Amino acid sequence: MRLGPATPSARRLPPHRPRPAPYPERCSPGLRVSPALGPAPEDVERRGGRLSKMKVTLSALDTHESSFTPLVVIELAQDVKEETKEWLKNRIISKKKDGGAQLLFRPLLNKYEKETLENQNLYLVGASKIRLLLGAEAVGLVKECNDNTMRAFTYGTRHTFKGFDDDNDDFLTMAECQFIIKHELENLRARDEKMIPGYPQAKLYPGKSLLRRLLTSGIVIQVFPLHDNEALKKLEDSWYTRFTIKCQPTDSIRGYFGETIALYFGFLEYFTFALIPMAVIGLPYYLFVWEDYDKYVIFASFNLIWSTVILEVWKRGCASMTYRWGTLVMKRQFEEPRPGYHGVLGINPVTGREEPLYPSYKRQLRIYLVSLPFVCLCLYFSLFVMMIYFDMEAWALGLHESSGSEWTGILLYVPSIIYAFVIEIMNRLYRYAAEFLTSWENHRLESAYQNHLILKVLVFNFLNCFASLFYIAFVLRDMKLLRQSLATLLITSQILNQVVESLLPYWLQRKHHMQVKRKVQALKADIDATLYEQVVLEKEMGTYLGTFDDYLELFLQFGYVSLFSCVYPLAATFAVLNNLTEVNSDALKMCRVFKRPFAEPSASIGVWQLAFETMSVISVVTNCALIGMSPQVNALFPESKADLILIVVAVEHALLAFKFILAFAIPDKPRHIQMKLARLEFESLEALKQQQVKLATENLKEEWREGEKEKAP
């Protein structure tokens, strides 16, 4: 496999430019080691008939290689000063002990090519094979050993891992290589610099992330990983180019995009198939117009069991997948500070490492005195817009009743459609504000940042999307309007998401692609046109902002399906139809619309699991309340409404208790995964004991030597 649309032999390079190395799909790009690097760490020398391995450290690595496989692109602003470029280059290629990243770095265009073409400030970043392997150990990647167990990779024990060979470059995937480079770039931090050279207004202080400061100052425009066009084409062929119902190639997606994106597509596929029973059962309820709410008790009860079982079974399947990928056993309890985190450089009392420190009370003040009031204000504004929507509904209904024509009957759906558009706009505007506030709160860990952002967005989106439905159901008590509004909001939001997220960006990207292609074909310069075209094209692509919006869309869809299932059973059918196209449209945008995102290791879908479980609990309450409000159930208690309320509450509590018992009875991890994890924990404890015994023995020997020295005359 090669990274790039063509092999090096397919293009002629100018004689002054080193010939690029092949672009393998799987990592450790085939980098040629310069003679200055010396013997490779796996090389051995024979002395006295014994085979002794040479010890390799980061300080022994050279950063000046004649050629390397480009993995990551850094784009600088057009007016960046030369001294800034030289400083950035030195920090990237400098050794780790000197505060550098110890990576490989060169411009996309040399001096001759810059005179011929537009002076694009584009730079390619790569790394040697040894550097990537040492980086894999530093970030804690977990790989499968020859004994079929999953263990954290270490360079010293590399030969015990399955698939590793000194002459094989396929041990690490390209996604893992790019993740390692991203980790090193993000952890370049200011030491003694007071400012960025050439930009006195861009202040620095010890511990500040250099990449973050360069991005916020506008010196660095963007940093992104390159696509591997050959590997991408193979992935597309097995993924979405043939419109057939098939399983997602999650392992292939993981190898190319990383675990986080692979988990999303795995969950999307699982959730879609899990909706099919709901759709099959709900369809006859809708087609035969069964208005007796007592019949909906069966459907609501099935909804309760269904929502619990699918979430618990998903956790088991997710555990099996992430164990196979190595992320389930990845040690992440001590996360590195996120790149946007700032503070005064100090010593972390837990790890003993030097890192920025920021007082927790300042963060809490920002959350409770600024963020919380702002969120409440946005919620109030959402309710205000909702009341305007009901005024529009009343106006449309009054107009229809006064005229009685079929055209005004169509007008009854217009307020709901307009409100659905307004909801989407408000959700997107609020998202930007929530991101700004969460970043301003200055959370140390990326996981904490994501949790606070998700909480803010979920609260607003839940109220914004479902408040009108709750108002119709429990205040107006108009089931016909509830069914109409739910259907309109669900279908309109699905169509909008398909168009805005995938179809429109894809059309714009295709148009831009043709412009870039014509421009490159018109060039007369003797350059590496294929690589140049790829980099220029990809730098103009949109940036994929993560799986947040994708999970949020599924979360809201789950709410539409489960919250009011006894009123509109057809919701699951529309959800299935949408998701069958969503799989392909999301795959299309990942491969052809957005830049390739950096891989991120994940062991689960994170806080979204809790969000879906919370929604399923709320759905029990809403469905019990709706059934209790039905005329058929009310007719059973003509004398006392208090008895009806008590019975509904008792049934709701009983169902919730059954739900929690069911969730507890289904283990989160399969038995064989539990055994493997227990075995790993046992071996870790045994290794720790042996290390402590060895250390104690060495201390005793040292004390004995000291005693012998004192006794000696």
TrEMBL record:
Stretches the record annotates as Disordered: 1-47
Gene that specifies this protein: ANO10
Family indicated by similarity: Belongs to the anoctamin family.
Sequence intervals crossing the membrane: 261-290, 296-314, 367-390, 410-430, 453-474, 486-508, 554-577, 644-666
Membrane topology: Multi-pass membrane protein
GO cellular component: plasma membrane
Signal peptide feature range: none
Organism (species): Camelus ferus (Wild bactrian camel)
Location(s), subcellular: Membrane
Name this polypeptide is given: Anoctamin
PANTHER family with a match to the protein in the record: ANOCTAMIN, ANOCTAMIN-10
Domain Anoctamin transmembrane: 253-679
